[in-house]
Amino acid sequence: QHPDQLQPADYFYGDFQVFNDADGSFWTTSYEQGLQKWYWNNSNQPVKQLTLSLADGLSNPFVVAATFDKQHRLWVATLSGLVVIEKNSSGIYTVNRVDEEALFHINNWGEAKLTTDKEGAVWLASFHDLIRFHTNQIYFDNAVPGIAIDDVQLNLKKTNWKSWTDSL
Q1: Phi and psi dihedrals of 126, rounded to 5?
Q2: Is the model more confident about 95 or about 141?
Q3: Cβ contacts of residue 147 below 8 Å, gap of 6+?
Q4: What is the pLDDT of residues 54-102, one digit of tens each?
Q5: Alpha carbons 42 and 139: distance in angstroms, whole number
Q6: End-to-end CA distance of the chain
Q7: What pLDDT score was predicted for residue 122?
Q8: Bridge partners of 98?
Q9: The predicted structure's pLDDT at residue 144
Q10: Which distant-in-sequence residues (6+ apart) come within 8 Å of 35 by Cβ?
Q11: CA distances from 164 to 35, 99, 149, 152, 160 (A)
Q12: What is the 3-state secondary structure (H, E, C) of 37-74?
């Protein structure tokens, strides 16, 4: 078996998903590999174009639900939370994690469902919650934050570093 060929799932979870992309390709979800983007070659065979996994910023490889918004961003619910995947003009994908602590709290991400309504809003449903995201008002700042170190402690205690080293 070639790793870039579409294979049947060999795990117990039954919610393997396939959904179309507006560019003519399609996406699949996989418990072990996260998300894969596929295209059809000239022989009408699916070929893997891209895999997005933990190494790419996906919060969990177990994808539960996914939907596109009107800005063609891919909203993905995983067992560890919500991410929004954007493709820039160079074709590079960026995975943005949505901080649920600041906005909402979902107890069981395994039950999450996502859909996009005709106005372009993304809806997140769980066992106890229904949340609407106005996607035209959501932007992600991918700038690297400035870092300033105010204090360095040893075993969570203020330390006289001159007794430990001659340069700091």
Answers
A1: -135, -175
A2: 95
A3: none
A4: 888 888 888 888 889 988 899 988 888 888 998 888 888 888 888 666 5
A5: 37
A6: 55
A7: 92
A8: none
A9: 67
A10: 27, 28, 29, 51, 52, 53, 58, 63, 66, 74, 76, 85
A11: 48, 39, 19, 13, 7
A12: EEEECCCCCEEEEEEECHHHCCCCCCEEEEEECCCCCE
